[in-house]
Amino acid sequence: MREIGKVADIKDNTAIIKIQRRSSCGSCTACGMRKDQNEILLPVSNDLGAKLGDWVELELQSISILKASTIVYVIPLIALILGVIGGYAIAEQLSRDTELYGAIGGILLTILSFVGIRVMDPLFNTKGDYSPRMVSIINLSSKGEIEDGK
Length: 150
Known about the structure:
Elements: E1 2-11, E2 14-20, E3 39-45, E4 55-59, H1 62-94, H2 98-124, E5 133-140, E6 146-149
Antiparallel strand pairs: 1-2, 1-4, 2-3, 4-5, 5-6
Helix pairs in contact: 1-2
């Protein structure tokens, strides 16, 4: 996935990039932008030496998006299913209401999975795989159009 943004600020070796919401985004909030926001500020390593006001192209690898989606959606779903199954099994052993124990087990394990993901978040992103990276600085032509350049 590629996005174009403008360098709004530079701090040390980090560029703060302002990205505008596109019409294709609709009301999606995957990037962290709220529905009522039209832009977001993203800190990105300034490996290309972009200057304040430069337009830059950012890239986030598709495989990273798939991995992040798996972590955030599939792991809690598996936890929910295992919690329900575990709750049923425990309820049968104790001769209790299986549906209630299944629901409680599912909810508890799902909450624990989200807490675990939140705690492990810094470990998932140690290599920067889940952060956008600057791939090019874009030049504006005399007509005001964006031209690719480095």
